[in-house]
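Name: TraA
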Amino acid sequence: MRLLRILMLLMCGLFIPRTASAQAVVVSGPPVAPLPEMTGAGLCVATSVSQNPAADFPQAQSTYIAGINAFMEANRGNRVTSVLRTPLDLSNNLNDGRTLSYGDFTGAVAGCPVGGCDFGYSDAVTSFATRLRGFIAVTSDMVDRPLHFGFYADDSVSLALFDRDQTSYPVINRPLTLGFPTWRATNTVHFAQPGLYGVEVLHTNVGEHAALEMSVYDGVFTDFERAATMPPIINLATEGFVLVTPGMFHQTESGQPSFPTPTECAQCNRQFANAPGNGGCETGYRCNAAALCAPCDSSLFCGESCAPCGASTPYCVSQTEGFVCAQCQDANDCVAPDECHLPICTETGNCASTPVEDGTECTGGTCQQGECRPVDAGTPDAGEADGGEADGGAADAGPSDGGATDAGAADAGEADAGPSDGGATDAGVTDAGATDAGGPGEVDGGSNPGVDGGSTDTDGGNPTADSGVPAGDAGSLAGGSPEDPSEPESGCGCQGGPSALFPMALLALSLVVRRGRR
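Structure predicted for TraA:
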């Protein structure tokens, strides 16, 4: 009997899956998008019921992932979809004397039963498949680190990552195996760059116990894959693994939730990922790189038709009725027409401008009511002082060009020689008769001949009267004082003009003859 028992154990051991030789995965492709500033909204979970799990759920690694995805798309109409807003610890919490559905993390999620949070179907008889999708946020401190992703699953599980080019990186692929429904599996992932990467987790349950836990560990660990009941039993929670949380996962490249309601999401066929158009999603939505329906809110996919934006309207902006292509997102996308305006972006996404504050400096002047005007020329250059006094005013023209002082004293006084001829009688007569020939002559050679010959002082004439009157006279002629030239001249009290000069000339001639005889 002892030999028979040993033989039976050996034969059973031949059918027990061995520990897999896990091979680390290096995600070398570029991320789908940069890291968003906000925390994640959680993975999108879709669940479909199977009426024939033996046919619907593949049991070979080569067909498992493609087969489960095909089943999910074929049963799109009866899928139950929601956002997982708790750590990824799911269970139907079946305790039939065994607690295989509890997993390694018990009582880990507040508000959920001890074994974990509910699946879409949490009874012990419904067969179903679950697909979880989204973007995993790989931070800079996760780059080039040995990140061990661990799973506790009943009945099957797979994990695949996707880069920007939709290159698939299978990390875990543990299909359904009859007789060994509960598994633990870990594998190492190295990310070459930080950013968002697509993630897809597939899970099935045929019946009885259902469990799905996803955890991660950063450090030295020997990866393995074996049935949960196979020794040695390695509890992932005890080994330092921690459950992944909703904040690690996003639904869109921008980091925003895919629908206005945080608990709402939708999955699409991966063959339409990043393809033009709506990709099977509703109007205004597209199939993004994570194969989730997401708003058409980017320059490549914008508006109801999810068409790319053009050169004149390169930005996709939110409006009351959805997203539209526009000129700008904010003022930084606009250019002001000149120095006296500031650029603005209107609520409709169009560039405009507004005047700067009056008095703001601009090239060559200051801004006034949105115009650059030079400094006022009237005050420093062409004002009253400049034009009136310096160029054409009374002060400038009077003394310098044609005033009384300029023409009267300088021009007529010296030519008169009235004051300087008084010493010699001949000079006085000559001055009066020939040189002056006008009013000043009358003063020099007055009507009384006795005055000229008897007194040298008197013959010289009255200097004041002789020089003053000509000054006024010459000033009038030069343009200093606007006097009427028809008015009679004054100075000696005699009548002017040719009739008065003739007797005076005769008198002077007689005096010359008389002196010659003597």
